[in-house]
Design a protein that fits this description.
single chain; Cytidine Deaminase, domain 2; five-stranded mixed beta sheet; 5 strands; 29% helix; hydrolase activity; Cytidine and deoxycytidylate deaminase zinc-binding region; CMP_dCMP_dom
Length: 137
């Protein structure tokens, strides 16, 4: 099992936990130096808060744990392509790598007509992350 698969397996576990609470089955982790420093699962339904996507929750957790707001040495793994909202958060916090399994072409920040995750014309964000799509099981 390679490193991408190891981190994606944890995302899948978090997605299962999200589904058990009535949320969309999405899980995400932030990795820095080969160590998970943030975890998140979809949590929009309990508090009726649309910003509680797994990716945003993982980034919030990483910021809390690390004390850093810029995560430029970190990677984000997620079961689903980050949406436009999550892509904005990823770019704001300057993550270097995004790895996902399932594309979401209607609102995904990489495959939709508004690729916020990879645009280069918003200079305050710096360079876009490298984006990899893994093939699921």
């Amino acid at each position: 099992m390679n490193r991408h698969e190891v981190f994606m397996k944890r995302c899948q576990e978090l997605a299962r936990q999200a589904a058990q609470t009535g949320n969309t089955p999405v899980g995400a982790v932030v990795v820095c130096g080969g160590i998970i420093i943030g975890e998140g699962q979809e949590a929009t339904r309990p508090g009726n808060d649309i910003t509680c996507h797994a990716e945003v929750e993982a980034i919030r957790d990483a910021i809390r744990r690390s004390g850093e707001s810029k995560l430029s040495d970190c990677s984000l793994y997620t079961t689903h392509e980050p949406c436009i909202l999550c892509s904005y958060v990823i770019r704001h916090h300057q993550l270097a790598l995004v790895v996902f399994e399932i594309a979401v072409p209607t609102v995904g920040g990489f495959t939709c007509p508004h690729p916020i995750l990879t645009v280069t014309d918003i200079s305050v964000w710096g360079p876009p992350p490298v984006v990899l799509q893994l093939k699921g099981d």
